Amino acid sequence: MYISKQGCIGTLVLLYSISANAEVTLKDNFKFTANFIDLAMYSQESAVDDNFTNSAGLFLNTEIKLANENYDLGVLKAQYVFNGLNDDAQLNTSNNWFGGVGSYVGGAIAANDLASSQLSLLTWDKYWNDKTLYTSVGRTNLRRYFLYNNCQNILLCTDPIKGAMGSLPTNYAYWGGYTKYNFSENIYMHAGIFEVNTDDYVYKKKGLDFSFHHQLGYTQVYGVGYKDKNSKAELLYFYNNSEYRNAYTQEKYDGTDGLNFRFNHDFSNQNIPTVFGAYSYIDEKNQPYKNYWELGLSYKINQGKNHLGVKFGQSQLNDDYVLMTQKINGNDNKTTSFLSLDTDINYKRLTLSPFVQYIWNPDNYYRSTGKTFNSNVIVGLVTQIKLY
Q1: pTM of whole model > 0.85?
Q2: What is the DSSP letter of 171?
């Protein structure tokens, strides 16, 4: 079942009609926001001309509360994204900016969108039992609920485990269901099952193919966490039953699973920086990456309104992919190290988030053409504008 862009707009109109028929007040129960986000990056090493890439998106968000004084039927949420200013939208990462910078930690933050627009979210969300239980079902993305970002600049929150989970970036939506239960104010458990649907990305379906016949597999995710006013820590396990092929041995395999632990702690004293970190382990030797870790500090400046962040981390290839990159481009690096610095500048509806990332001993996994290199510097700027 494929739905056109006109059909998508019609769906949004229908959602509004349902809300109106439920005798809700538009002013109180309808919310619309529009945000523009631009990512510009320069890389000292690159596989494309000018060593520069720029990608942007217009994010349109709608929330309709199905509630009044007598009942609460939850919230309908929708997001539609218009992609633009992206001149390297192609599948072969070795020939574009993504592959040119030498490693996942530097390349994955560059968007590689193929379609001009994308339905990114269409869900029904509901709280139950005095808000101890939360559910969300529809067209969504597991990254919206798991692997929470513990650094202020989301473009620097990279982790190869996301690919092993079969999850595309958050502007891609697929069928999924999620639930979270709060045992107390501090302890919670959450779980979800999500379709693995790379067809939508490859064939430019714009998120409007609502069929169930992709048969690419599903990912199950289970997590338990602790949080209070100063801290948050979470441990999750995932199982992805999709079939993949080892790029070096050509062996087919399925049943990828792995673990992720992440934490952050915010000290009450603003003179002491927030500490955060994460560790991921992918328990499948045929996957490109084996593990990843990061540790960082975030200093509050301007009375807590802004920050200055620093992060160090490493990612490690599995043995087959070290052999593959040695054969293709002469790479000898199994472990990639990186150091990043970032800050933010706010003015009314405008936020500027510059960052710099230094990468050494890159694994060159995505750089399957051209010569390898042993270090790289990436300078970037994220611009966010709240239009409405």
Answers
A1: yes
A2: T
Cβ proximity of 126 and 69 under 8 Å: no
**Single-letter amino acid code for the residue at 301:** I
Distance CA 314, CA 81 (A): 32
Q: Where are the domains of the chain?
A: 5-386
Q: What is the pLDDT of residue 15?
A: 52
**Predicted local distance difference test score (pLDDT) of residue 360:** 94
CA 120 centroid distance within chain: 12
Question: Which tokens is 304 given?
Answer: 């807590």
Integer Cα distance of 119 and 172 in angstroms: 7
pLDDT > 60? residue 108: yes
The CATH number corresponding to 5-386 among 3.40.50.10170, 2.60.40.10, 2.40.160.10, 2.30.29.30 equals 2.40.160.10
Amino acid identity, position 329: N
Locate 169 and state its tokens.
């970036």
Q: Which residue carries 């599995």 as its tokens? A: 318
- Of 292, 206, 256, 238, nearest to 7 (Cα)? 206
The whole-number pLDDT of residue 23 equals 47
